[in-house]
Amino acid sequence: MKRMMLALAVLAILAGSAYAQGTIKIGGIWTLADITGKQGSAAAQLAVDEINAAGGVLGKKLELIVVDDEGKADKAAAAVEKLATVDKVDVFVGGMASGAELGKIPAFKKYGKVVMSTGAAGSATVEKALGPSPESDFYFHLHPWDYNQGASYAEGWNAIQQKYPNIQIKKIFLAYEEGAFGKSSWDATKVLFGGDNRYIVDGASFKSALLGGGDYTAVLEAAKAFKPDLFLWAGYDADALPLLEQSKAMKFSPGIYLGAPPGWPIGFGSSKLSRNVMLYGMWSTAMNDNNPASAKFYKNYVAKYKEEPATYFAPLAYSAVYILVDGIKAAGTTETAPLVKALEATKYASPLGETITFKPSNIIKHQGITRQKILQWQDGFQEVIWPFEAATAAPVYPFPAWK
Amino acid sequence: MVVKRRTAFIVALSAAAVVALILWKPTVLIYGLQAAGLYAAVAIPMGLVLGIVHIVNLAHGEFMMVASYAAYFGCRALGMDPLLAIVPTAIVTAVFGWIMFQLTIRRALKAPELNQLILTFGLAIAFTQSINLIFTSQTYKMPLDYVSASMDIGDLTFGTWSFVFVAVAIIFAYGLQLFLTKTTTGKAALAVGQNPRGAAIVGIDVYRTYGLVFALALALVGAMGALFLTKSAIFPSVGSPFTMKSFCLIAMAGIGNIPGILGASVLLGVAENFLRAFRPTRDWAEIVFFVLIIVVILARSLKGRKS
């Protein structure tokens, strides 16, 4: 009996080892309590399932091992350690908040495995911590840095005013939440739009509902007195509807009403208040009509999870897995040096409406997407207004007066 | 005579300040009163628990958050307006409050105050994390037309919906006052709050009374949870700031002084909005809450020492 047990144990170990040899492991780190992390990890798993169903990579199956970083730097660092040493993953994927990403960087550098990052826009923290090439060459940053985003907004509004002469912007008012996110948006807006006297920029802070606030009357009073052509608010999804409700109550209707939260509340599009509100983003379901990659991603995601992707972090994570796999196929290995070389040649037609390639950014060598999109809520859907090559609708202007 | 003269002076000064505000910055008064209504309506149930059960419920805001989630998903499932969910939510949270009291709070009533604080703090974390696990941190908000109701007076346009919180706060304060002074159960609750041992000697079931008061407070919290859906988006940590603000208001008003919470709320709401109305002082609005509390408590201490 004892011999039989021993034989079985040996067989089990051998079988496990053989299975492990036939698997390429991807370590995924997201904040799972957050919708971006929940859907991002789900989209990455969808990509893994599709690739496995199509025969895997290099004759091996893909396995995604997800660890929750709880949005905290220490947990994120521990997640990298666990995935690298216990699970022995071959590559990393994931990320959203810059603070948590910052915690991962020392461990990423220690293990030197290829990282396909889907978040972290904070250049002053994350990009600086990564450092220049070659020490950060293992790191492929898909999401635009904050300065990329700012530059693309300025470019977008200039292009929109040229194409649609009825849209003229002179005065810009930024209502920004009083935390780090809002304040960095305010600093960037002043530099980008207020630098050369083309625009007159003013702003005021408010306490986001997410941080215990939720009263926007003072900031809206200041904005109304300024009479802006473009009113932009930089806060969180919790602010979206209450801000519009209070704007309506105060009959504040600027020419362009633009929101820049990281995500929108569930059902926002079904509210009448969402009509013609503009937003910044990277993806919308409207892109399914003119982008087959987007349509395929959307169809498979909805079929698997019975819910819509709520933010662009889902197609971004999905793209991250495909880009990694294409690189592994081209390199024939998951070893860092050849895989980095293969990934440098990436040309991936993504569901985000653009072909992703990697170019140097201000500090690192491998920056993917550099442009955000300008979109508008029209009849419950986010329509892409700019870049024009990805546009799904013309802008509705001006933002209608409240009835 | 001196006291009367001083009271008359304070009343005259307050009236002059109100008139000056109406003429100079009417929105400060309007939005200040609206904010005060919300603060007071949330704080009053906490004041009731603190005044009678003598426990600082650090899960107060989280109870409201759970009630808001229950109301939200109830409304979504039944296609109901949150205003219609006020009474059902109040009943559900009252039952929930009774159960929570029997299972947790009751066990800690004779324990040191630190243990009580840790217990309710633990409940707050458990509620927040449970909601976070079930619903994620995604925010939910019901789009409602009537919350954008507004009024025009000359060039001034302002929202009127938030005045509903002022009405609710007044109803809560005077409803509770009536309950505590005119009903047998209320009088028993007052007696238990003032002297639990004496109340027990005369035959009042102290723990049953505590449980009832806690359930009543939770019913009010539940009602506010449903009403809160009209004002704000909900997410797991939405209740936490209200715990601190409510506690501060009770400290200002004095423990057991429910109508005093109304006055403290008005003072804080107007002061906050006054600072927000001017660019250089806008960022000071959050601090005024704590500055006023320190001033009031210091003044009260000095007055106590003098007398």
**What general outline of chain A do the C-alpha atoms trace?**
globular
Distance between the termini of chain B: 17 Å
Rounded mean pLDDT of chain A is 90
CATH class of the largest domain in chain A: Alpha Beta
CATH second-level architecture of the largest domain in chain A: 3-Layer(aba) Sandwich
Q: In sequence order, what are the helices and strands of chain B, one letter per element? A: HHHHHEEHHHHHHH
What's the end-to-end separation of chain A, in Å? 83 Å
Q: Indicate the multimeric state.
A: heterodimer
Q: Looking at CATH, which topology of chain B would you report?
A: ABC transporter involved in vitamin B12 uptake, BtuC
Care to describe what's here?
The complex is a heterodimer of chains A (403) and B (307). With 403 residues, chain A is α/β, with parallel strands linked by helices. Chain A has helices spanning 2-21, 35-53, 73-85, 98-111, 123-130, 146-163, 180-194, 217-226, 237-249, 292-305, 313-331, 336-344, and strands at 23-30, 61-68, 91-94, 115-117, 139-141, 171-177, 200-206, 230-234, 256-259, 278-281, 348-349, 355-356, 373-378, 381-386. Chain A folds into two domains: 2-145 and 290-356, Rossmann fold; 148-286 and 373-390, Response regulator (Rossmann fold, 3-Layer(aba) Sandwich). Chain A has twelve helices and 14 strands. In chain A, the strands form three sheets. Chain A has a seven-stranded mixed β-sheet with strand order 7-6-8-9-10-13-14, sandwiched between helices. In chain A, strands 2-1-3-4-5 form a five-stranded parallel β-sheet. In chain A, strands 11-12 form a two-stranded antiparallel ribbon. Chain A is globular. The termini of chain A are far apart. Chain B has one domain (32-135, 155-306): Orthogonal Bundle (ABC transporter involved in vitamin B12 uptake, BtuC). Chain B has a two-stranded antiparallel sheet. Chain B is globular and about 55 Å long. Classes of the chains: A alpha/beta (403), B mainly alpha (307). The interface between A and B is large, with 42 and 39 residues.
